[in-house]
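COMPLEX REQUEST
Ligand: flavin-adenine dinucleotide
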Amino acid sequence: MDFYRQYDSLLSSDELSFVEKARAFCTGAFSDHLLQAHIEGIPFAREWISRWAALGMFGLQAQRDHGGLGASFLCKVRVAQEMAQHGFAAAFCLNHHQGSVTRLSQTGTPAQAQRLLPDALRGERLYTIAMTEPGGGSDAAGMSTIATRVPDGWRLNGSKSWLTDGLIVDGLILLARAANDTADDGVASFYVTLDDAATFSRREIMVPGARSFRLAEITFKDHFIPDWAMIAAPGQALKASMATINAARVHVAAMCVATLRASLAEAVAYCQERHTFGKSLLQHQGLRWELANVATRLEAANALVYRAAELIQRGETPVTLAAQCKAFAVETAIWGVDQCIRAIGATGASSAHRLNMHLAEMRMAAYADGTNEMLFDRIGKGLAADYPLQSAAH
Ligand SMILES: Cc1cc2nc3c(=O)[nH]c(=O)nc-3n(C[C@H](O)[C@H](O)[C@H](O)COP(=O)(O)OP(=O)(O)OC[C@H]3O[C@@H](n4cnc5c(N)ncnc54)[C@H](O)[C@@H]3O)c2cc1C
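STATUS: Structure written out below.
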């Protein structure tokens, strides 16, 4: 049974070759390195980001005439899944930058593409989304970072926190409240480059067991943004960022499913080898049923993720399904990885074990792109429209 067959059946032969390339890259030395970095409590080495860039993977969805590979959403999902099987944080970080490159290529102005895209494609300038603030992330409309109009651009003041790759990025897709003489104080978004070290500072946000996210807070003091770097005008940015949120949620959910699948495989292999009371752990019915339960919920999560992913691939906007699949996949993965750890006994509790790394990183997936409370709120708002009584005509 090929867990990813449904996804792969919709990919072109070129896209299948990108997935194959990702699999070859992630298996072996890279995978070993991720675990070693986890054991040492440090982020994975930056050289692996350059190696990934050299494969052209940051341009996976960028337009071909920009030097990208022009792949589809489902291909992006499958490439991310290949990496998430070895380490969720690494997959999440590299895909954050890849998503920014896609955005630059697909919706950037000619000036933005010309100035920013080549470095971004080569991974020489890394980007992340900067929306959350120390005062909160769920209520994006309440942000207090201010961009004030000045000749030829804007001056930025405030702080952004919990930024993926925040320790090493030198580019941001940043949302800020615009302040100007016309009292138009809507939220705008900008490409912000971090070149002038005098006007910004970084602080690592330490998350034990998950330092590969390289989370950081970045504070700005009169940081200049040129006019050409504006993405969405005041009042338009929140709507624009919502346009990509469904795909982002499905993407995270798909990576969670891949991490859980890898965890289950690891637990099963271990339980086949280890013996107690004259038989393998897997032959003890009590333990076998626990892993069977993980397998069943994993399949349910994957079915939900696939259903949402396929709709996004077709250009639809599955708001409810995207929220459902992210909420369910994250909960299932956190619970399921924990079950796998328990199934292999004390070995799984050791920080030297990959399942320990998977659990620490999986727990972080619960916050990105919407917490479960916000997702259930979204699903709840759609209940009447999504689940009406069936009429006789149906
Ligand atoms: C690994 C990781 C990577 C991240 N990467 C980025 C990034 O690259 N860029 C970025 O901008 N942000 C990033 N974030 C931040 C993330 O988006 C926020 O953590 C998230 O939006 C929640 O915001 P908060 O943590 O400030 O919680 P808060 O908004 O303060 O919420 C606290 C709690 O209250 C709940 N809550 C809030 N409002 C409601 C409500 N109306 N009803 C019920 N419950 C509610 C929340 O669900 C949560 O449980 C990242 C976070 C993590 C952990």
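REMARKS: The mean pLDDT is 95. Residues 245-273 form the longest helix (29 residues).
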